[in-house]
Design a protein that fits this description.
This protein has 299 residues and is mainly alpha-helical. The protein has a domain of 207 residues: MetI-like (MetI-like fold). The two termini are 41 Å apart.
Length: 299
């Protein structure tokens, strides 16, 4: 064979089994959904600008210059300045870092908490299922947004606390999705075969069931990031989230509301940024759902 890649043909279409075939096939399928493909590259570009932009644009987002308050767009301040003379471009870049990190961090904790509860409840069943899923349903009955507001008021408003609070109030949907998928896959023959060969329940769950649930978790994660970004922005807009001088797109909106008629651009910029990023994550999530779950493929 001389290391050649094995190929076969199905209905005249050659299929290769190289190492890169799965990844390349994934991107080829994603490209067919133009909206999801555009959203994917838009998000990459947005993250690159936000996280690497400060390496080029070095003005401090907290540098105050009251004499130049509400300055128009110039070479020195491409997006102007706010009411305290702070550079808006710098605040958009640093604020975007915090907002996007809160979204990603919240998603990670949400998946860990919800995925663990859903997988354990679905696989082991019995009283474990009853306790965990009744707890999940009880949490779902509580207004999550108001619970987050109360928790932040009591526990503090640091970025890490915002991440933990958003995750603690939004893991339930992930838990129910993973629970349903785990129930479906644990009834398959390969799970029974693993148990019959002496594999422990935990090993079977981790090695054979969880990998089957990962595509569903990926889809839920993209939508979860969008939800976390919206939640952080809403909380910060109400003045109960991350506090100045640390900038986020949410508290930039909160600060701009009193200048909506005199300097509307201060609110437009972070508002548009939040809208575009959330829409992109939602569109990407829809595209991944269609790609990874054949039941949702549009005909």
């Amino acid at each position: 064979m001389n290391g050649a890649v094995k190929t076969t043909t199905i209905k005249g279409a050659p299929l290769s089994y190289g190492k890169e075939s799965k990844l390349s096939n994934f991107f080829q399928q994603l490209m067919k959904n133009k909206v999801a493909w555009f959203s994917f590259w838009f998000l990459i570009l947005a993250h690159l600008i936000v996280f690497f932009g400060p390496l080029v644009w070095r003005i401090s987002p907290e540098a105050v210059d009251p004499i130049n308050a509400f300055a128009s767009w110039t070479a020195a301040h491409p997006l102007g300045t706010d009411d305290m003379g702070r550079d808006v471009l710098s605040r958009m870049l640093y604020g975007g870092q915090i907002t996007l990190l809160v979204g990603f961090g919240s998603m990670v904790f949400t998946v860990l908490i919800g995925g663990l509860i859903g997988a354990v409840a679905g696989f082991f069943g019995g009283w474990i299922d009853t306790v965990l899923m009744r707890f999940t349903e009880a949490m779902m009955s509580v207004p999550n947004f108001f619970l987050a507001l109360v928790a932040l008021t009591v526990l503090g408003k640091s970025p890490w606390m915002v991440i933990v609070v958003i995750a603690f109030t939004s893991w339930m949907e992930i838990a129910r999705v993973v629970y349903g998928e785990t129930l479906k896959w644990k009834a398959n023959e390969f799970v029974e075969a693993s148990m019959a060969m002496g594999s422990s329940s935990i090993r079977t769950l981790i090695r054979h069931v969880v990998p089957q649930v990962i595509p569903t978790i990926i889809v839920a994660s993209t939508l979860g990031i969008a939800w976390a970004i919206l939640t952080e922005s809403a909380i910060s807009y109400l003045g109960l989230g991350i506090q100045p001088p640390t900038s986020t797109w949410g508290n930039m909106l909160q600060n701009a509301q009193q200048y909506i008629w005199t300097s509307p651009i201060l609110g437009v910029l972070p508002g548009v940024a939040i809208t575009l990023v959330v829409l992109a994550y939602n569109f990407l999530g829809d595209g991944l759902r269609d790609l990874l779950d054949p039941k949702h493929v549009k005909k």
